[in-house]
Amino acid sequence: MLGRTANGLFWMFRYLERAENTARLLDAALRMALTRDLATAEAEWRSVIATLGLQRAYDAAHDGYDAQSVWNFVLRDPSNPGNVRAMFGAVRSNARTARTNISSDVWEAVNDNWMKIDAMLSRPVGQTAVGEVLGAIRRAGTQVHGAFDGSMLRDDGYHFSRAGTFIERADSTARILDMKYFLLLPSLSYVGSSLDTGQWEQVLRSVAGARVYSWLNAGKIEARGIVEFLVLDDRFPRSLAFCRNALRDCLAALARNHGVEGSCHALMRDADTRISHLTVEQIFEAGLHEFLIDFLARDAAIARAIAEDYRFHA
Amino acid sequence: MIADDGNFDEMFDGSGQTRPAYAEYCRWYDEQPAEFLRRKNSEADDSFRRTGITFNVYGEDAAEERLIPFDMVPRIITAGEWRRLSRGIEQRVRALNSFLYDLYHRQEIVRAGRLPARLLQSNDAWLANMVGFTPPGGIYTHIVGIDLVRTGPDEFFVLEDNARTPSGVSYMLENRETMMGMFPDLFSRIAVESVSNYPRRLARSLAACVPPAFTGGKPTVAVLTPGIFNSAYFEHAFLADQMGAELVEGSDLRVVEGRVQMRTTRGYKPIDVLYRRVDDDYLDPLSFNPDSMLGVPGIMDVYRSGGITIANAPGTGVADDKAIYSFMPDIVEFYTGEKPLLPNVQTWRCADKDSLAYVLDNLAELVVKEVHGSGGYGMLIGPTSSKREIAAFREKLIAKPDNYIAQPTLALSTCPIYTRAGLAPRHLDLRPFVLVSPEGIDITPGGLTRVALKKGSLVVNSSQGGGTKDTWVLKD
To answer: How far apart are CA A81 and CA A146, in angstroms?
Structure first.
């Protein structure tokens, strides 16, 4: 497979994942804002902007954090070049680049959803439409992944696509967790104290883990349990451990197919030693924030190494 | 219903009777409820959009993608008509290849006084670095599109030869897919020659033209595209996908150890046959346009030393020139020793004084085209132009007569299109696609029918508001 095509697949799935995660984050904030007072709601929208790393661009364009300004900024505002509409544009143009290495089913799922979502986001999104828009974005991810699972040959292209998915997903979960931890638990002394369970529920909701967490933990919301769930529980498909396992499998398959390991495999092993056999107590002891920053840096380094090892660029 | 401008209509004769080729189709059509046809007509658009069969329009927003309008009434050709056409096409394509070989070798045709040497000297598509070089298998035009027009029951003319990089074959294939999806019952009632194996035939044809450096095994074939912003990108991706070939851009390629190689995740890998959809000028910045980012520096050296096959061969555009076209009857006769089976449209070369005088006197009745033009740009259609447009064109023509040829305004045949008000005749042409390899000449039955959607219009180009139809060749 061409290096450029591998790059196209990798980024097609990163952008798809990013769009879906962004929609979940907005959805959770929306719900939170509806059940709280105005000041809390504003703080909530502010934290969405901060989690997405859009603080500076947003402040340059807006004065306050009202709900509609925030979601329109995130979803479609041209002053935010990384808006969701642009992400879908990138999903589609990467899919076009890699057109000969994806099945027609995958292409049609991408193209269909792009047409729908691009049209929805061509106008400002109002209060009554936002739920529908966020739902459509989530379903786009589901449909593309479904077509992908059901129709793609399990060759290099499959593994590059999944590598993009899990690098992006891990990145997103780590960022959401870090943002909330930072806001709610500024020092270790807070750990274990009585929590704003609404905030934590919201974290779980933004990674689609609220229901499954309650089911596993009999509804008991506490920081330790949530961190264990989101970082270490390798059964939950958005946990850091799950993403790392999946990424490890992709890289192993690529090494098998290519008959050689690259620098990404060494980085992966190194990263593995940091997370395997770790307990939640150890994470808290060393600092969750420090742990997450380290995790994000390693995730990014592996992504760069994949691009290098597999000749994504000339 | 009778064609309203007196031109030959392919579906109905002068008294409104259905012609035999369309008899079964019209029976079927009349049985369909109006509501069903209306619904199908709008479904067709959705299906094209979903598949992403779009083209980008030059000069518009880069993100702008358009559909070429599709008309759901097929254009039907009988088996007998097709047999005659394909004999003529084969003869013409054979002559084109011999002609190109000759031009870049001894130029016997010039020596024999049958073609003026100045036509080559003034030809922009002429490539000095092809002189004396024979492409692998001696094939210059691996893929040719011959544009045909019809004016009567047995009157077919060649309007244009596309020996450079004919496009549109993806529409031929997708139009058929769409028709079969929408009207399966039609295909069980009427036996139509299949077109769907074109990509396989193309792959086979290209693989039969491996270069001397080919080391055996399965030849590596790649399609070279200018990239996703090119107007025909969909077609490039479509063909690569259907052929199981790689779709490469200039930035993927590099000359390594005397071969053109593509950057794969496993390192560089040599390409044997490159089906390029990039113009000659952009193919090699070392040999041609130095600013080109679309090509491969050094590919011409590799080509000349037998390291790669380029399809179509560089320099074949010489034959697309409309001044050369005017000599095609001579060219066919010179190389095949036979009378041309398919006539040219009468053509006045404005470079000749007498012809120029005639053309200037009759501008209002003629079609005037640029010698190197294509896509329907830069032409004058006398009968549909205003006095002012004609006057402006006259100036251009007098300033640079060598740059133009003129043809009579043809009474192009019509075939009905579907409109909400019922069937309505529109003018059309036909571009059959021809594959050439050392194994022979292979013509896919049918081709791309382009149709002017505006009433009375003679311009069928998609860039000028034309549409397409599925083209049926009936089985015997």
So the answer is: 28
Task: Please report the DSSP string for B263-317 in residue order.
Answer: EETTEEEE-SEEEE-S-HHHH-TTTS-TT-SSS-TTHHHHHHTTS-EEESPTTGG
CA distance B346 to B52: 40
Burial class of residue B22 (count of CB atoms within 10 Å of its CB; 0-12, 13-18, 19+): buried
Q: What percent of chain A lies above the pLDDT cut of 90? A: 71
Contact yes or no for B50 and A111 at CB 8 A: yes
The answer to whether A2 contacts B267, with C-beta atoms less than 8 Å apart, is no
Residue A19's nearest CA partner among A90, A73, A77, A103 is A90
**Cα-atom radius of gyration of chain A, to the nearest Å?**
19
- Give the DSSP letter string of B344-385: BPP-EETTSHHHHHHHHHTGGGEEEEETT--TTTT-EEGGGS
Residue type, B360: L
Question: How many CB contacts within 8 angstroms connect chain A with chain B?
Answer: 62
pTM for this one?
Answer: 0.90
Q: Is B31 exposed, middle or buried (0-12, 13-18, 19+ CB in 10 A)?
A: exposed
What pLDDT was estimated at residue B75? 98
Interchain contact, B252 vs A2, CB within 8 Å: yes
Cα dihedral A19/A24/A26/A29 (nearest 10): -160
ipTM surpasses 0.90: no
Chain segment A240-275, per-residue pLDDT in tens: 999 999 999 999 999 999 999 999 999 999 998 888
Give the whole-angstrom CA distance, residue B28 versus residue B476: 19
CA quadruple B429, B435, B436, B439: dihedral sign: negative
Going by pLDDT thresholds of 50, 70 and 90, the confidence category of residue A35 is: confident
Q: Do the beta carbons of residue A55 and residue A184 sit within 8 Å? A: no
> B72 to each of A136, B2, B11, B445, how far by Cα in Å?
32, 20, 14, 19
Which site among B49, B236, B265, B277 would you substitute to test the A interface, given the most A Cβ atoms closer than 10 Å to its Cβ? B265
| B256 three-state secondary structure | strand
Nearest partner of B100 among B324, B403, B405, judged by Cα: B324
Whether B388 and chain A come into contact, CB under 8 Å, resolves to: no
- Which of B63, B245, B265 is opposite residue A311, by nearest beta carbon? B265
Q: Which residue of A has its CA nearest to B241?
A: A100
Q: With an 8 Å Cβ cutoff, is A256 touching chain B?
A: no
Confidence at residue A164, expressed as pLDDT on a 0 to 100 scale: 98
Burial class (CB in 10 A: 0-12, 13-18, 19+), A264: buried
Whether residue A161 contacts residue A12, with contact meaning beta carbons closer than 8 Å, is answered with yes
User: In this structure, what token pair is assigned to residue B205?
Assistant: 């044809």
**Beta strand pairing status for B348-349 and B404-408?**
antiparallel
Residue spans of chain B under pLDDT 50: 1-3, 59-62
CB A258 to CB B233 under 8 A? no
Contact A6 B248 (CB under 8 A): no
Would you list the DSSP string of A257-304? Answer: HHTS--HHHHHHHHHHHHHTT--HHHHHHH-HHHHHHHHHHHHHHHHH
Which backbone phi and psi does B211 adopt, to 5 degrees?
-80, 165
Residue pLDDT, tens place only, A182-195? 654 544 445 544 55
Q: What is the pLDDT of residue A33?
A: 83
Model pLDDT, residue B274: 98
Q: Is any Cβ of chain B less than 8 angstroms from the Cβ of A112?
A: yes
B181 touches chain A (CB under 8 A): no
Please answer yes or no on whether A111 and B247 come within 8 Å at the CB atom.
no
CB contact under 8 A, A99 and B266: no
pLDDT digits (tens, 9 = 90+) for A139-175: 999 999 999 999 999 999 999 999 999 999 999 999 9
